[in-house]
Design brief:
homotetramer; GTP Cyclohydrolase I, domain 2; nine-stranded antiparallel sheet; disordered N terminus
Chain lengths: 320, 320, 320, 320
Amino acid sequence: MNTCPILPDVQASKPAVPISLTRVGVTDVKKLVRVQKDGKKPIVLTGIFDIFVDLPSDRKGANLSRNFEAIDETLNKIFELPTYHIEDLCSDVAENLLERHEYAKHAEVRMKSEYVLKKKAPASKIAGHQFVDIFAEAVAERNDVNGTDISVKKMIGAEVTGITACPCAQSIMTETAEKELLNLGVDEKTVQLFLQRVPMATHNQRGRGIISIKTADTKHISLSTIIEIIEESMSSNIFEVLKRADEKIVVEKAHRNPKFVEDCVRTMAQKVIEKFPDISDDSIVTIKQINEESIHKHNAFAERVTTIGEIKEELNNNSN
Amino acid sequence: MNTCPILPDVQASKPAVPISLTRVGVTDVKKLVRVQKDGKKPIVLTGIFDIFVDLPSDRKGANLSRNFEAIDETLNKIFELPTYHIEDLCSDVAENLLERHEYAKHAEVRMKSEYVLKKKAPASKIAGHQFVDIFAEAVAERNDVNGTDISVKKMIGAEVTGITACPCAQSIMTETAEKELLNLGVDEKTVQLFLQRVPMATHNQRGRGIISIKTADTKHISLSTIIEIIEESMSSNIFEVLKRADEKIVVEKAHRNPKFVEDCVRTMAQKVIEKFPDISDDSIVTIKQINEESIHKHNAFAERVTTIGEIKEELNNNSN
Amino acid sequence: MNTCPILPDVQASKPAVPISLTRVGVTDVKKLVRVQKDGKKPIVLTGIFDIFVDLPSDRKGANLSRNFEAIDETLNKIFELPTYHIEDLCSDVAENLLERHEYAKHAEVRMKSEYVLKKKAPASKIAGHQFVDIFAEAVAERNDVNGTDISVKKMIGAEVTGITACPCAQSIMTETAEKELLNLGVDEKTVQLFLQRVPMATHNQRGRGIISIKTADTKHISLSTIIEIIEESMSSNIFEVLKRADEKIVVEKAHRNPKFVEDCVRTMAQKVIEKFPDISDDSIVTIKQINEESIHKHNAFAERVTTIGEIKEELNNNSN
Amino acid sequence: MNTCPILPDVQASKPAVPISLTRVGVTDVKKLVRVQKDGKKPIVLTGIFDIFVDLPSDRKGANLSRNFEAIDETLNKIFELPTYHIEDLCSDVAENLLERHEYAKHAEVRMKSEYVLKKKAPASKIAGHQFVDIFAEAVAERNDVNGTDISVKKMIGAEVTGITACPCAQSIMTETAEKELLNLGVDEKTVQLFLQRVPMATHNQRGRGIISIKTADTKHISLSTIIEIIEESMSSNIFEVLKRADEKIVVEKAHRNPKFVEDCVRTMAQKVIEKFPDISDDSIVTIKQINEESIHKHNAFAERVTTIGEIKEELNNNSN
């Protein structure tokens, strides 16, 4: 799909270099998208889309009039039809592309957006907006020559910011506190009780957790559940507005729950299995954690890319 | 590899969730890197590194004291040893990581940087700096239990900016010019001669071409050749300073050589085969072109991801 | 305004270094903002806010409980109250801040967002979304000791992307075409007629025009008019979807209307005076044009920062 | 300065809209710059330049051949001549521009770059690279009609990343620890001694401090001193590699030295006066602190923009 409406015979002609292309299309197309959940008031998102088809080696270019009509029709339909699931939206565009491009065997649609949740501070209950990065993708493949048999894989995911506190620096500070208290004549038992009740200092920072799940399943994967899993896998979730009592809760929670990047990814992996028991074993899950280390200029990073089945197997094997 | 130097027994202990991790490490580590070519004066690049090892399911964390020593030693060695090949530099770090982390089976090092070429304007011969984005990667895999048998795959690539002129809008403008000249009474033959000599207007824009090649071959793949291939596959290369005579050459060249994103990718693919005849057939090549369309706010995009062998086969099959 | 709800007596205490601060506050606060125009359906924007007050030299910190209540109350009100004018929204927050912070003499609120227009392609009339960057600012100053006399200056502006075609390269190409036609025996008069009817090639590229107007006037400055002025001052406006006939119109229009960055800024300045005849002479206008040169990796830039009165005077003086 | 070498008579002609322009030029020009300090080995920086002149209302465009020669000559000279002071480099380009553009009264050159320091971890003394953002600017004004009297103002500055710990959340946690220890039967005096020796937890994060100084003074302002001031004004400086003993020092130091954004800016202001006693009172100083709050998604911000004389006066008046 070049961006020009050239004459059909030019497009159908053989290209100078007879090589097929994996993806041809447009990127960074911004569109308003209206989504809706169970009869609730619809909300409007700004979607940024990448839209591709493949191109065989014997075609110079994609059929542009058809192609742009396809994209536009589907995106307009999306804009008018209330939908909750952004991955279905990607899937509809991908299937529409294959219908219109008889020569394409593969269509791919990616979308990213920002989702807004209302969230209340833990003590004061002051409400604030929480902006979360969300994204979806659909890949449609034509399985037969005539092209009526199409299979689709859909991906959905989110990136959420929270706070992570370092277990290592905390263990150093706890050791220091222990020694000082013993030096000051406080007895061992009191020292241990105190250190259980009050978590000691450590460096902490913004952490970003990312989960995406790619599956051929038709059942919807809840984006809210993905967002919850990410938030609950860091040392604490964070808020827009915090009063004194709220700030105490967040800082204490983060320090009672120190986490390496490794810990965050492993916790997310475990929770994905718990919260989504029905996803097919061959679905692919990508889980990442990036900590914007406050004591360094670089970031700490951990990642697991695997199938749902693999994680289940590892958890089973290793729990014995 | 968490970023904290915790006690060895803590790291070697079993994690709460016994799941292995694909990549654990640090990202966005900036380092000065000195590179040198055949006895020429060394140049200093700023490298931005991502450095990872995998982690088995029975280890809480990576051995940090060893780990940071490994990274630091290798990067310091890189800084002191003249090297031309940035992919070898990544490979050295990756192998060093595997040596020090007896539990890791996989190490991965990515580097991106900016490379500066001196380039002369086509007519005036005024010299200017051309900044090109370059990147490399190495993945080291341990093949046996004892860990002395390590295989490495290296990747190298570049992104270069040039100008692309749209063939479609040009064909429309050429048609318009043809009609006007015939209307004004100019004879058909003169019209055709004129249109062969003077290319008509079209929209044109900054285009970005990207090539990366990933291989297990030990022979070096020339970065300068990759940069040349990308430049020569767009409508024209571009320059820092252009005098009147230079500008005429660049604008004419671009308009005599209009290219869709599809054309740029196909030309790059063909030239990769021509210029690198010795790369193994199973090497993976990724070729992309992004045009920052001057008539749209979105970009046009084409991509081919495949093996060297596949491209050769397509070229052979389709040339018959 | 530090971000912590510390004890009031701590905040009111003298700081260790008794120096006043120009701006204290929060940046990159994302909020949903509902705006509405003359009984039309309200639209929801994502606003990114920077919110500041000044701090006298004898106060350690800003009164945080009051401060966050102020911000939150105003922003919540904004979210619930339909408003069309984003600069009024900034102004309301700024005045609210001064009411709550008895020690502050200066409050400043900046907002940026994205505005979506429906726009039809020139020939096919296919509708597309046009995303435009918009921004506003309000500065509230307390004029008296008691603090009931507050004066406010508001700023509003937009950045719009279009296409600019270079007049210089076009004059070179026109000269070339002229010579070739004369060489081919076409008579001078026919050549001139042809060159009047068909614009010759040149390099063209994405251009970005920016206008902001800062005034103490209470009358609203139309954002749509600002957007129109910017679009009409480049070689051509651009569209999301273009069919063959549309593309011909855009490319021809851009080539009939070549513009340097200087020309774009001067045209915008003239149009601002024409379209906003009532803005006070002491209002400050900033006009910029950035061309993402397709023949270079760097950008071309022109800017005028002055008062409305100055532009009027220059236009009057120089037209004589 | 448009980017095209059009015919001189075209440029010298009157523009369609007779309005003068504040800045015309090029932005994002990348150049290699070699700098040197007192006979030490020269280092090479990548400078990103913005270069402008003003344009009178009666000139259509800037004289391009002259203009590009001016830029190029000066930048090439910079590349060849060892220089330590990047603000002098900007100043040389600005003066050269005024010499060549007889119609311009104002020339402005901005440069940003990255500077690398070798820095040792506090305990292990492991050396690492510290990358710091640096920037400079020069504005040259022609004071007379003939243009031989030129005055120049130069600006120099840096942005450094460190760690800031929140004093407010720490006071909450200290209160909590105090209560728990008293509850556990530890006597008041021991509690106070303990809390003096071991700093309690708080949220902490990456902070970015920025100082720039603009002056007509000819004496050089040390960039290293600016970088030191910024580092010492946060809770702690940070490092590339930290071993266990280093990490203890950094985390303890940050927690013994909690700082609001307000505190960081005030400390920087005081240190600028102490370390640069000779800068003229009318020099303008801009001091900013941005904390990437780990408990919020937004940033905390404080800024002071004023003259050196004003800060001195405030410090004198308020110390009485």
